UniProtKB/TrEMBL annotation:
This is ArsA family ATPase. It comes from Mesobacillus selenatarsenatis. Signal peptide: none annotated. SUPFAM superfamilies: P-loop containing nucleoside triphosphate hydrolases. Coiled coil: none annotated. One of its GO terms (molecular function) is ATP hydrolysis activity. The lineage of its organism: Bacteria, Bacillati, Bacillota, Bacilli, Bacillales. NCBIfam families: GET3_arsA_TRC40 (TIGR00345). Belongs to the arsA ATPase family.
């Protein structure tokens, strides 16, 4: 199975290295191969719409080009939807006299750190488990590295958290049964809801850890800080069972760029390219050139997409030799 045959793609990296451009180019490349693709931006500072010269705000899936749909996730709106969903699930499961207090506690929890990430992960879970049936692949354009690491490690962390909640709920039910002294199993819809959510997290975690279905790509530039940050991110994710198989080295100075200034920059860049070759020798390496102009039109995005496709094809040919 090649890099172009996966169902889920996560494109990550340091801020400003070209994640959104690479994500859009990858999505466009797959779409031009006849696949039906959904490009999802999880970065609060969305710029997918700017790349396609379209307005994708509103949190709905929109058509960008042939075979390619785009969704810019509104994390604040998703957080509100998430909280309303939790309240809806609890309605009817707790006594009416307690509902107001329970809702107050939920609202307090919603303002705590990490609540938007939890809501965002819930949305990603729905896309991976349900929306994927409508597409051949989903490409996620993620926020800068730290945010991405927290997001991708959430399935593991939330799984542990849900286990703790279920265990406490189970003990409470057992104590209640003993107190009633009838030995009957307590019918607990709240436990069933928690168990259902735990199973969803388990299913999505299995998909995200399956290298046959999911590809992790980190984008970096041939500079000191992006190299250091990428190496740390790859190691951290590896510790959580997530293996980054590919890197895209973006904005490499092309050989035809002339002048003393560019010659000096190329010489400096050569040292970092050598470091990248050694430091990321376990990753598939794809190189994209610095263009003469910004990626400011669909035609320039198609140019990058074409270059990305050629590089990936070269990698595939080399791996098959």
């Amino acid at each position: 199975m090649t890099m172009l045959d996966k169902k889920i793609y996560f494109i990550g990296g340091k801020g400003g290295v070209g994640k959104s451009t690479t994500s859009a180019a990858m999505a466009l490349l797959l779409a031009q191969k006849g696949k039906k693709i959904l490009l999802v931006s999880t970065d609060p500072a969305h710029n997918t719409g700017d790349l396609f010269h379209r307005n994708f705000t509103g949190g709905k899936i929109e058509r960008a080009t042939r075979n390619l749909d785009v969704l810019e996730i509104d994390s604040e709106q998703e957080s509100r939807n998430y909280i309303n969903g939790v309240k809806g699930n609890l309605k009817g499961l707790v006594k009416a006299t307690m509902l107001e207090e329970v809702n107050r506690q939920i609202d307090m929890a919603a303002s705590s750190p990490g609540s938007e990430e939890a809501a965002l992960f819930d949305k990603i879970t729905s896309l991976v488990l349900e929306e994927i049936t409508n597409y051949d692949a989903i490409v996620f354009d993620t926020a800068p590295t730290g945010h991405t690491i927290r997001l991708l490690t959430l399935p593991e962390l939330m799984g542990v958290w849900m286990d703790g909640l279920l265990e406490r709920r189970k003990k409470a039910n057992e104590n209640y049964a003993q107190w009633m002294n009838d030995g009957e199993v307590v019918d607990d819809p709240l436990y069933d809801k928690l168990n259902e959510r735990k199973n969803r997290f388990k299913r999505v975690r299995e998909i995200l850890l399956d290298g046959r279905q999911t590809e992790y790509v980190f984008v970096l530039n041939a500079e000191r800080l992006p190299i250091l940050e990428t190496a740390k991110a790859i190691e951290t994710l590896h510790q959580h069972g997530i293996h980054v198989n590919s890197i895209v080295v973006n904005k490499v100075i092309p050989e035809e760029a002339d002048g003393r200034f560019m010659a000096q920059r190329r010489s400096n860049e050569r040292l970092y390219l050598d470091e990248i070759a050694e430091k990321f020798k376990n990753q598939r390496q794809v190189f994209l050139p610095l263009l003469e102009q910004d990626i400011s039109s669909l035609s320039s995005l198609e140019l990058i997409s074409g270059l990305l496709g050629k590089q990936i094809d070269m990698n595939i040919e080399q791996s098959q030799k």
